[in-house]
Structure formats: structure tokens, C-alpha cells
Amino acid sequence: MYSLGLKFASALLAVLVVGLGVTTFLANQTTSNEFRQFAAQGWSNQAITMASVLGDYYQRTGSLEGVDQILSNPRTRRGPPPPPGSRPGRGAPEGELAAAPGPAFDLVLADKSGIVVADNVEKHPGEVLSEALLQSAVPIVVGGNQVGALVRFDPAETLSPAEEIVLQRVNRSIWLAGALAGLLAVVLGVILTRQLTGPLRDLTQAAHRMAQGDLNQRVPVRSKDEVGELGEAFNTMAANLTQADQLRRNLMADVAHELRTPLTLIQGNLEAMVDGVYPPDQDRLQMLLHQSLLLSRLINDVRDLSLAESGELKLEHNRVDLVQIARRALAANEANSYCEGQSLRFETSSDELNIMGDSHRFEQIVSNLLSNALRYTPAGGQITIQVARRNHEAFLSVTDSGAGISAEDLPHVFERFWRGDRSRSRASGGMGLGLAIARTLAELHKGRLEVQSQVGHGSTFILTLPLADDCAGVQR
């Protein structure tokens, strides 16, 4: 199996080879074509200059005889240069012959009949030029009449040996530059590949260790790109898994503790009754019934929360009056608040506030909020329930005058099995399931449950639900 780094490096190398190869080839071809066009343009300019010189020569002498020296200028002949000290263009005016330029190619001079009278290689004298060659010739005009023509035998794009050498050197430089650029790109590509695949290797190793049960794995995040986002997502996932594992451990410990206490009481009292130590009177049977109810409530809480979070909790879908639900919950808790010396207060701006959902679950939400407020409100304190309509939503708040919740504990209030004071018993603090169940039920009804609190100033739990006319549907 090939690694991602090897695949990426191979793909990058293939792209580089193809890209640089095509670029270098096109640059080579373009350079050759441009150079040949430049050479052809140079020949045209030189031919026009030479034709002017030959025209002046004809005008002075009356013929084209004796122009061999002009055509045999060192710049136009193919053979080796003349010996040092020799005069170019002997037999012609010194300044004119020295000024006659021309590249190294077969150059012939024909008269007006197309018969070659001179050339720079001395192998075409007397030949009759074809019509095609004469059409490409540069005419020599004197007094408005054509007296001859300069003809280049090889195509205008053909380069001289010196020009070919220059072009080869230029093309060689292009290929060398392409090769160096490719080598540099490969080196940079290897570095880039390692930078990209390095974090992925760290993620893979950390994932393997997490699969083996080590949930404390984290990866360093060194960038803000997609790979960095993946690393942050992995770290978040690992943190959530660690938290979930800790909650699971806490759940096991809490459930074991909460089950052990009532079971121990039930078992101990039953054994004492069987052994005849305690009589099976009404008080002891009532106490055993109370402990069994605690066990049943704990089991129901865990079951309800599990079903709600998995989306398997069945909900009815009916029109429900939130004001009446609040009143019933208030009446159900009046006796408890009276015994604890607490006062309950109810405020509403509406006689009726209809919402859609399961009335039993709404009563469970409000009851959980009231039970929580009663538990943390001292004797003489006050608990206020307020129901109102706000911006097309139903609003219910439960405010207590308790000690409040600290800022560091506030984000954890709705977590499962979380308790700010781990030493609390179920009688004084519960299992930490009531608020978690309340928020989950609110979300199942397309609502939300929030908390506002400050140490020393009590807490306010706010339930917001869509009105019946605005409900888009509640999970069934």
C-alpha cells in the first residue's frame, strides 16, 4: 500500500515533468521560430542595402560585370575569411564594397533576363533562374527600370552555421533552465509534501492510540488551513470523548452509589424483619416503599434521558395551554414549599398561551425546574414562576432566591450527572439528571432552556417554546 506522501509526491512530480517539459518545449520552439524570423528580416534588410549598392554600381559602370567582389564580401561567403591585409571588394569603390553587408548563404546576381552573372560561391554562373526564384528575388532598379535581381538559393528561414550555433546555445540554455527549475521544484515539492503529510501522520498515530483506549491524545495545530482545521476537530473530538468517558465513569460511580443506599436499607430491614429483629409494622413498610420509589425514580430518570437523547422518546402532538401547566405544577409543589418555609409566586400576562406538544413532558420540564429551585432555596426564600408571550414565542421562567451558581459551574448545569458539589447525596442534590432531562425535552419540542445566575443573587431558568400557530412540527 502506497502512502499518501508517496502518492502526493508522485503526482506532483508528474505534474512538474509534464508542465516543465511542455513549457520548455514551447519556449524552445518559440525561440527558434522567432530567431529564424529575425534572421529572415535581417536578410531582407541586408538584401535591400546590397541592391542599393549594386544599383549605384550599375549606374556608374553601365553593367553588372565585375560585381563578384561585392558578392564575395567576407560577410556573404561561406568559405574561410581572406588573408589579413587583403582589401574587400577589389575593383569597386572602397567605401561601397566595405559597406555591403550580407549573411553567409548562396547569393546570386541575375540580369534582367534571369541569367546568373555572378554569385558568392562561384558555382551558379550562367544558370537560368526559375520563375519561382525570380519571384522571391530582390530587384535591382536603376532609373525606374529593373536591371537585375538578387536571389537567395536556400529559404529565407535557413540559418547560417554561426546563427545555428547561437540558436543551439540559446535552446540549450532553455533546457538547462527548465531542468534546474524542475530540480528546484522537486526539492520544494518534497519539503511541501512533508509539511502536508506530517500533521496527517501525527493524526493517524494519535487515532491509532485512541483506538487502543488512550483518550488523552492531542495533536499540535501549526496552521490555519484545512489540515489545521482537521487537527482542531480531532482535538475537539478527543476532548469530547474524554469528557464522555469521564461522565460514563461518574455515571457508573453515581448509579452504583445511589442504588446501593436504598438497596442496602431495603435489604437490611427485610433481613431484620425475617430474623424477627424488627416487626413488619406500618412505619417500616412505609419506609421500604419510599426507598423503592426512589429506586424507581432513578431508573425512570436514566431511561427517559437515554430515550430522549437517542430520539426514541415518544411524544404526543397536541395543543397545550402553558399557563395551565404552570398552575398545575405550582399547585403540586405548594405543600413542599410550605413545609420548607418557602413562598411560591405566579405571574402571567395571558389567561391562555397555547403551544404544541406533549402535556405530560411539559409538566415534567416545569416540575424539574421547580424541584431544582425548591432544593436550593433556603427557608424564607421565594420562588417565582412567570409565563408570558414574547416575539411569537411562549416564555416561562423559574426564579429562585438561592445562593446562585458560580461562573465556572454555569456552563455545566445542564450536563448529565453533573453536580457542582460531588459530596451531595441524592436527597440534597439529586443525581444531576433533572435539568439535563428538562433541556433535552425542551429541544425535542423545538424550544430551548437557558439559565442566568449570579452567586448570592439566585438563579433564573428560562424556557422558550414556539407558539401553537408558529410550530413547524415537533419530533414524534
Describe the SSE topology.
Blueprint: H1 4-61, H2 68-71, H3 94-98, E1 107-111, E2 116-119, H4 131-135, E3 138-142, E4 145-152, H5 161-211, H6 226-275, H7 282-310, E5 318-321, H8 322-339, E6 343-348, E7 354-357, H9 359-376, E8 382-390, E9 393-400, H10 426-429, H11 434-444, E10 448-453, E11 459-466
Parallel strand pairs: 6-8
Antiparallel strand pairs: 1-2, 1-4, 3-4, 5-7, 8-9, 9-11, 10-11
Helix pairs in contact: 1-5, 5-6, 6-7, 7-11, 8-9, 9-11
Quick tags:
alpha+beta, Helix Hairpins, Heat Shock Protein 90, five-stranded mixed β-sheet, four-stranded antiparallel β-sheet, 11 strands, 53% helix
User: Which term fits the overall shape?
Assistant: rod-shaped
| Overall strand count | 11
What are the segments in which pLDDT stays under 50 over at least 5 consecutive residues? 74-103, 422-428, 472-476
**Main β sheet profile:** 5 strands, mixed
Helix content bin = 40-55%
Roughly what fraction of the amino acids lie in strands?
A: 5-15%
Give the rounded overall mean pLDDT. 77
